[in-house]
Amino acid sequence: MASITQDPWVTKSATTGDWMFQKRYIERLMDHNALTAAHPDDTLILAGPPRAIVESENVPLSKMLPIGMVQQMQVTQTKPTTPMQAIGSGRIFFVSGKAQIAASIARLFVNGRNLLRALYTNVVQAGIDVSKFDDIAAVGQNNQFFANLDSELFLVPFGMAVLFRDKIHDEIGAFYMELCMINTWAIAVGAGQNMILENVNLMCDRLRPISTNGIGNTAIPTSYIPTAPTPSNLYKAIFSNKNANPNPAGANGADGPYGNSEYGGAS
Question: Domains plus CATH for the chain?
Fold first, then answer.
């Protein structure tokens, strides 16, 4: 039977006799999952340049505008795949095409930048007067309300980044949507509603994972300093119990009493 002294609450392998479903978690320790799970509160959506790489290997997050008051966002990747057969065989094989990405965003309609204006911050930063197009997108260069999908403005692509963190500022993941184009804008007003939402549907060329280079770790002062890799000192202070769960290797290292298996090491 495999040793489970480091993580007695985590199943290592169902084939070695330590799978005890009433006593153990699968894959990782879940005692602190409320702190490590992704949550909408800790998700940031930004709009900016059409491509993630601009004259360097760095994602230009400093040039991007965080989009506030978003109520819902959904991103879907679809990869066209066709099952095929050949005469003389009963087996199926597949041919596949390029992934297609679609997204939808719902945002509160308030005074200030509307959703289309926020998404097209790259055009505003470039100094383009959207009121000078043959088919205008806004009334005046500094107007905060963009509309009219017939305008030449909406032939210009933009980019979006989505960043996910947990409650102690550790990065969970991030991706960049390149060459976004809007195909639907909607706004609806109904009696008795307590809000008005703008809705946008869009498509993009590709979705690629990115690194945020630690952005957000020091944006808000806290009583502790998040460490990398997880767990932070906060985890260790809350969940350490060396008497109940001795782990000399973990005690001498940086991963605390649970060892490495929970946090990216060998399990």
Answer: 39-213 (2.30.110), 223-257 (no CATH)
